[in-house]
Amino acid sequence: MKDWTGVEEAYRVSFATLCAGTVTMMVDAVAGAAGPLLDVGCGTGELAAQALRRGHRVTALDPDPAMVAMTRERIGEDSQACLDVAALPDLPYPNGAYGAVCANFVINHVEDPRACVRELARVAAPGARVAMTIWPAAGAGWNPLVGGAFTDAGVVPVASTRLPEHLDFPRTPQGLAALATEADLEVLTAQEVTWTWSVSPEDLWAGVAGGVATVGQTFLAQEPQVQRAAARRYRERAAEAVAPDGLLHLPSRAVLVLASQS
């Protein structure tokens, strides 16, 4: 998986709140699970916290110890929760151990998506539901704002982070559903979902300036004068887009696939 070391706090105040937009949908999708829920890539702990409130026993894992620590801070000491430092595609759990498996914006970050979905299927018990989200191929709702500032400032793109063709897959409902089918899961729903991400301009920029994901790594790779120009143009553009409540309200989309283990 991509390395998030050192960007945890920047992620927490910025793009973690974007990723939280699908959490309720995912927990709803696996409601009624007969066994414990596995939260793969727990990040700041929003999904684990909501699942615990719904009465699930939860195992939450992330490859980054700092993310696991933030999840622990989020949920507290809960006897129904177990936290682990672990990563796809090699999870330290037996076959069929979980009654529900959730991977919120994880498969779009891994080096071998097919192997990782197979691993999600392996740890799912018979009849368990597996819920996954990814970002779709089209641009994110925040991209015109940040991307426009980058263009204005002359930001130079970094080398492509796309997967090799033989490992990649279409970032569409059909593409993610195909990975589930290849892993011998029965696809129940495959759809694009939408919501509005409400975020302050400074919190969004904290993720960029803090080096989160490709957009942040691109920013950090620039010369200082280009970084300053990008930050200035971002704030100018954000000032034009901000709502009276002081927030940006950005349309957001994701691919959500719900599947079942036979």
Task: Give a topology summary.
Layout: H1 8-13, H2 15-19, H3 23-29, E1 37-40, H4 46-53, E2 58-62, H5 65-75, E3 81-85, E4 98-104, H6 113-123, E5 124-134, H7 143-153, H8 173-182, E6 185-199, H9 201-209, H10 213-220, H11 224-241, E7 248-261
Parallel strand pairs: 1-2, 1-4, 2-3, 4-5
Antiparallel strand pairs: 5-7, 6-7
Helix pairs in contact: 3-4, 7-11, 9-11
| CATH fold-level topology | Rossmann fold
What fraction of the residues are assigned to beta strands by DSSP? 15-25%
Low-confidence stretches are: none
Structurally, the number of domains stands at: 1
What is the overall shape? globular
Task: Walk me through the structure.
Helix content is 40%, strand content 23%. The chain has helices at 8-13, 15-19, 23-29, 46-53, 65-75, 113-123, 143-153, 173-182, 201-209, 213-220, 224-241; strands at 37-40, 58-62, 81-85, 98-104, 124-134, 185-199, 248-261. Helix 4 (46-53) links the parallel strand 1 and strand 2. Helix 3 packs across helix 4. It is globular, with a radius of gyration of 18 Å.
